[in-house]
Predict the 3D structure of the following.
Amino acid sequence: MFDRLLNGKRVLLGVTGGIAAYKAADLCSKLAQAGAEVDVILTEAAAKFVAPLTFAALSGRPARVDLWTSPGGDPIPHVTMAAAADTVIVAPLSANTLAKLALGLADNLLTSTLLATPIASQKPGFSEKPGFSSPDQEQGVPWILAPAMESHMWANPLTQAHAAALRARGAVVVGPGVGRLASGAQGAGRMAEPAEILAAARLALAQGGPLAGRRVVVTAGGTQEPLDPVRFLTNASSGKMGVALAEAARDLGAAATLVHAPLAVAVPFGVESVPVRTAAQMCDAVLARLPDTDILIGAAAVADFRPAEPAGQKIKKTPGQVDLVVHLTRTPDILAEVAARRAEIGRPQVVIGFAAETQDLLANAAAKLAAKKLDIIVANDVTEPGSGFGSDDNRVTLLFADGRQEALPIMPKGEVAARVLESALARLVSPH
Ligand code: CTP
């Protein structure tokens, strides 16, 4: 799948000896599918587990093992590959190679290449201007390390000290996870899953993006309003659109926070999760963060009414009872509360809402844009087949406070999210 962040990026994938090397093939495939150019270097031990040919076939590029032969005719591949890399991933990383990297040893192609590739520190930068700054080799590139070894080797203070030394220089250490190890024993030492390693790489690459140093808060999911201790009123929202927005914000370098009711999908790696249940809780969580919020996106399907007096015990039916009348009362309108506070504190700089409609889409959306004092509203006809609640795609129209409208074709929610964030960014850097 095309990936804005990884497309065209040079990834140096180091693979060391261990049974988890087979999972590195999956990681290589995922990177290549995302459009990355993957230079794979295996240690001799890794090549005993998985053939270099596997990686060459998956990446479409030569996979190297030996420092002394150069398949592409390049006499100094360790220097060339180091200079070209946008990011380094070593997965799996053995205890042996971890120790060598911490000490700066260079006794094979992988360790020589990595010694020539400085580690970027992972502190988020700050950029006023839109557009990614290209990775600066002087300042180094992100290093993502995924250790995998027996739990006693991982727990050894020597190994821990080596991992700490690399972390202190800016390397991101993902995992290892707890589970079944090659020995059959249970313990800490399993390589992190490829999806998690990929997410860590994406998070590192996003730093220095156009939203670096900014906080984006997104609300997501359908709130749950209790009727009694075991029942609640809710709606059909899956939270997928909000999750996609938080992910898109993260990919632009923002610190992303998801204030969410229960979701049908996982909170993405690198996104702060603030779980809530009711509209009132969501409102409190959003308002508490306003002074630090640059962009707020209200993608949650917030209940407008809640049972006025939730029963303290499970509501029981009585013999002969044919109906039950529940008195509902209004919940806070979160975006209206935000508008009131924004008038006082001048934050967030950009506020975006969604309009989920079943009729008169654009007229209703324009009315909400004005009533809630939004900068942008994303109008969404939830009756359209294959779009809206629960689906992976969405067709939306963006309405701007200055009257402009932008109708987007049906596209995956991730793409819609990227377009919404682009508009938010444009508004942030030139408010009028
Ligand atoms: N919203 C909110 N607080 C509420 C209700 C909605 O902040 N109590 C936000 C939603 O997150 C969304 C926008 O307001 O960004 C519009 O939500 P929607 O449900 O379409 O509209 P409502 O304002 O609830 O109006 P109505 O239900 O009457 O159409």
In short: The two ends are 36 Å apart (CA to CA).
